[in-house]
Write a structure and sequence with these properties.
The protein is an all-alpha fold and about 100 residues long. It contains two helices and no strands. It has a domain at about 15-35 and about 65-100. The longest helix is centred in the first third of the chain and has 34 residues, at about 5-35. The radius of gyration is 24 Å and the shape is elongated.
Length: about 100
């Protein structure tokens, strides 16, 4: 295997890895967001017994640890894809540039 073919294979593997990490991150975020919206059928009833003050639950979206990990994976995958795309554009421009002799 020549150096040129080895470099192409390594770049192809990097593209696939970055794409799969991004896809896995988005899938985990989607599944985590779907799971966070379900409510429990047991537990506390959002008020304190013998109290005149009502309990107001947390405001906003409650993120599960799986959703946070999925978001991190999606961001890392997108950063890797953007780096690889920038590298591809830079190397293609460098190869088209005439040599100054």
């Amino acid at each position: 295997m020549t150096d040129l073919t080895r470099g192409r294979t390594a770049r192809r593997v990097l593209w696939w890895c970055a794409g799969l990490v991004t896809l896995a991150g988005f899938i985990i975020v989607a599944v985590g967001a779907d799971g966070a919206s379900t409510s429990a059928s047991f537990g506390w009833f959002a008020y304190q017994p013998l109290s005149s003050m009502a309990f107001a639950g947390p405001v906003g979206i409650v993120l599960t640890p799986a959703t946070v990990v999925g978001g991190i994976l999606a961001v890392v995958g997108l950063l890797a894809l953007s780096f690889l795309f920038g590298y591809l554009v830079a190397t293609s421009r460098a190869s088209r540039r005439p040599s100054a002799r």
